[in-house]
Amino acid sequence: MSPSLHRRVRIALSPRRALAAAFSAGLRPRLLDQRAVACARDVAGESTWEPTLEALRAAIELLPRARANARVILSNHFVRYLLLPWKPEIVTAEEEVAFATARFNQVYGTSAHDAVIRVSNAPAGSQRVASAIERPLLHRLGELLAEFNLRAESIQPHLMSAVNAWGGRRLRDGWVALAEPGLLLLGLRRYGAWLSLRSRPLEPQAPLAAIIEQERRLLGLDAAPANVFLHEADGAVLDATRVSAMLHDARLRALALGGIA
Known about the structure:
Layout: E1 7-13, E2 17-23, E3 31-38, H1 50-61, E4 68-74, E5 79-84, H2 93-108, E6 115-119, E7 128-134, H3 135-147, E8 150-157, H4 158-165, E9 174-180, E10 183-190, E11 193-201, H5 208-218, E12 227-232, E13 245-247
């Protein structure tokens, strides 16, 4: 049966809250109901996910009950990222994941052994984005969705959903800035490939222009693309007054943590 014939549920999870929205079936789905439930305790700035799943349960219980396909977006608080250098001797997907696992272990420790690791596609010679999500989180999330007769159609990190909304591999060169309370994920795309990707703590109203300039100097670049792809999610607000080219995409409103439209 075509997925368009099933009801759809969109879910966004962050350390502060769980968002869930139910849509009708069909090629032009209609919003039926949406709910946002705050976590029982404030864990903003942390990667603790148990309170978020408790909030998700409460949100789903408020939605109309029916079989549905679920699309889930995970806060970058729940995901670790690395850029993998191109190695022509790596041929298969299994070899790529093994290489990514070894790199995560080097950077983050042996915790990567209990994570689900995915590696993005990229042209030959380009760095690839690797993501790691705790296996227990995915297991518990899967159990919760199944309990409410929801089939996990996709589970994506915030970075992947944003980049896909901005055009995926066709995304223009520029800075990618994804702000959440307590966390900024800042990346740079140049000549159609990822040059850098780094997470850093984020204070409210932090000056984005100064952060980008600091990152440019750390990378040793004389110049960098002026484009800035920014999404402020889950109530995070940056000071973007000195950023010369600010690009927003309305499609993110339906995908990212700031809301489900």
